[in-house]
Design a protein that fits this description.
The chain is 40% helix and 18% strand. The chain contains 18 helices and 15 strands. The protein is globular, with a radius of gyration of 24 Å.
Length: 495
């Protein structure tokens, strides 16, 4: 989203210097290059909405560029899509095509008598190793993930530290004491937006004595494999109960086959992924978001720094890609209070970006989404809307402070919305329509005065309510998705 040299591929922007009656400049969602007084249209940017003339022009452009020789595009081509497949991530070979054989091996492993204590010890030791930043499999996974998705090693390390922090021996043994034993084969289709997403359910399944047949995401195929390989080093017999597969989401035939081979299926992803695999025996974790709630008392001089710093950390970890990353912060109090909070949060995000947690390398599509948030805020402010835009250089962070806004889902990458809220009834109005769609809320409430707010959050299905700074560390027995997976595994007396 900066001016490019002739011949470099980017978003096309048009400036009509003779226009006197309407819009004179347009940033499009079309990719192209300009050189030698020519403009070449290459089609829509990834995930850009096709509309207007682009519906026909995109088809035309694809036909033109498909037949044109590469040499016809002048100049250096330094543009790269961040989501191009990596060879190591797309191992759609014979090892995964014969899913029936994989399932048969897992069922054979279930016939080997393993007492729960042995499984628990293997899980405890494997997680303990993965918690160490110098553990080779963790280190290799982080390097590959960072290379593929552009997130810095510092952010990935801190994010995984937060994710694994609650998985200590006492918590794992406490979980085992509450869970049934089962001999099921459980299939998983993992998410790719957050490193380690789904590890709670995978570990619970193993502790229950089940076998796991997991299809990792092609966007992030490394961490789950690192977990399985670590378990194999600890106890090969326990590791025989987990198989990690890799194939692209386009192979719907393999996804359907995976489901048919398993007694239960756990699916992560957006709502379209769940719709493609609808039916009985399916536990789905679809599109959800999280927020934060800050009492005015948390912003007094002696409390402000800790509260704002902790919320900034919640935003930075996982680069705000997962369902537990706060999108929208509601500050209880007047508009002036939310404005002061926005300024403080912006300063903290700026300090974070310049310090220990460098921002992610954005691909063009992500950058365009964040730029769209900024431009929409600018134009709405010009039109008279009551809001303020705070932004870091180079799209490093963005805050839209709009006192009266309803809940807004962020595009991620340190993009936050901030609003003021008067009372519980006002808060309910702001969340209207998101009942059952919010996974977590960070609550800064030093004097415990927000009980009514918290009760309402629980009533609409928010399963993880925590102090700021803990959003990315839900416990092993976290009732993810209203306990859709955890609930049936609990012993009756502990449910």
């Amino acid at each position: 989203l900066q001016p490019l040299e002739d011949g470099e591929i980017g978003l096309l922007a048009y400036f009509d210097l003779a226009n006197a009656s309407s819009i004179s400049a347009i940033l499009t969602g079309d990719l192209g290059w300009a050189a030698n007084q020519r403009v070449m249209l290459l089609g829509r940017a990834p995930s850009a909405e096709a509309r207007g003339c682009a519906l026909a022009m995109d088809q035309f452009a694809r036909a033109q560029t498909a037949s044109a020789p590469r040499a016809s595009i002048p100049g250096p081509l330094r543009f790269e899509f961040a989501d191009l497949p990596v060879a190591a991530a797309d191992r759609a070979t014979s090892e995964v095509l014969d899913l029936a054989k994989v399932a048969a091996n897992l069922r054979a492993a279930l016939l080997v008598d393993l007492d729960r204590e042995r499984i628990v010890r293997a899980v405890i030791e494997a997680v303990s190793r993965l918690k160490r930043r110098d553990h080779r499999r963790r280190r290799d996974a982080i390097e590959m993930i960072g290379r593929k998705v552009g997130i810095s090693r510092q952010v990935l390390d801190a994010s995984i530290d937060a994710l694994l922090a609650p998985f200590h021996e006492e918590a794992i043994r406490a979980a085992a004491s509450r869970l049934k034993l089962t001999g099921e084969l459980i299939g998983f289709i993992m998410a790719g937006n957050v490193v380690g997403a789904g590890i709670h359910e995978v570990l619970l399944a193993l502790i229950c004595g089940a076998a796991v047949m997991a299809k990792s995401s092609s966007a992030e195929p490394y961490f789950l494999r690192a977990l399985a390989e670590t378990i194999a080093r600890v106890d090969p017999e326990v590791a025989n109960r987990i198989a990690v597969l890799s194939f692209t989401r386009e192979r719907s035939d393999l996804s359907a086959r995976l489901r048919a081979l398993c007694e239960k299926m756990v699916v992560y992803g957006d709502d379209s992924t769940l719709e493609a695999l609808h039916g009985s025996g399916l536990v789905g974790f679809g599109s959800k978001a999280s927020g934060a709630l800050v009492a005015a008392e948390a912003l007094r001089a002696d409390e402000r720094r800790a509260a704002v710093g902790a919320l900034a950390r919640d935003v930075v970890l996982f680069e705000q890609r997962g369902c537990l990353s706060p999108s929208h912060v509601f500050v209880v109090g007047r508009r002036e209070v939310s404005q002061r909070f926005s300024a403080a949060l912006g300063a903290e995000l700026e300090k974070t970006a310049r310090g220990d947690f460098p921002p992610a390398r954005l691909n063009l599509n992500l950058a365009a989404q964040i730029q769209a948030v900024r431009e929409a805020a600018r134009w709405r402010k010009i039109a008279g809307a009551s809001l303020d835009l705070l932004e870091g250089g180079g799209l490093q962070w963005t805050i839209v402070s709009e006192p009266d806004a309803r809940f807004i889902v962020s595009p991620g990458y340190r993009t936050v919305f901030v609003s003021a809220v008067e009372d519980v009834d006002d808060f309910k109005r702001r969340l209207l329509g998101f009942e059952g769609r919010i996974e977590g809320f960070s609550v800064a409430d030093p004097k415990s005065e927000l009980g009514g707010f918290v009760s309402y959050l629980r009533s609409i299905g928010v399963g993880w309510i925590c102090p700021p700074g803990s959003a990315q560390s839900p416990p092993l027995m976290w009732p993810h998705g209203n306990g859709a997976f955890l609930g049936p595994l609990l012993l009756p007396e502990t449910a």
